[in-house]
Amino acid sequence: MGTHVADNSDESRFEIFDGGERAGFVEYHRFRDEIAFLHTEIDPRFGGRGLGGTLARSVLDEARKGELKVLPFCPFIRGWLRKHPEYTDLVPEVQHARFGL
User: Fold this and answer.
1) In this protein, which residues make up the domain named N-acetyltransferase (predicted)?
2) Has this prediction a pTM greater than 0.70?
3) Which residues contact 50 (CB under 8 A, 6 or more apart)?
4) Beta bridge partners of 26
């Protein structure tokens, strides 16, 4: 079955599935042309497999596709952005200092 990410808009979260089981999620809030990432969780049973990084890359790729400005309130997403500066352009430049980017 593999790994895939799906937008569960009813719950305002992107979910990552591994082998058919939900392994984690990122909660978000959308408003106009912005998406705020609020909280990320990976089930401990799926820890150490890089699923958090896969999830972060996927949700940021979706934001780019949708031409959304990203507000990384979630510490995990914020930390991932610091390690992958090629994605920091998604965060409005006036917000970089606020999020430590």
Assistant:
1) 6-92
2) yes
3) none
4) 14, 40
Pairing of strands 34-42, 21-31: antiparallel
Whole-number CA gyration radius for the chain: 13
Q: Residue written as tokens 């959304």?
A: 68
* HEC profile of the chain: CCEEEEEECCCCEEEEEECCEEEEEEEEEEECCEEEEEEEEECHHHCCCCHHHHHHHHHHHHHHHCCCEEEECCHHHHHHHHHCHHHHHHCCHHHCCCCCC
Separation of alpha carbons 5 and 22, rounded Å? 9
Contact criterion met (CB below 8 Å) for 68 and 48:
no
Q: What is the pLDDT of residues 61-75, one digit of tens each?
A: 999 999 999 999 999
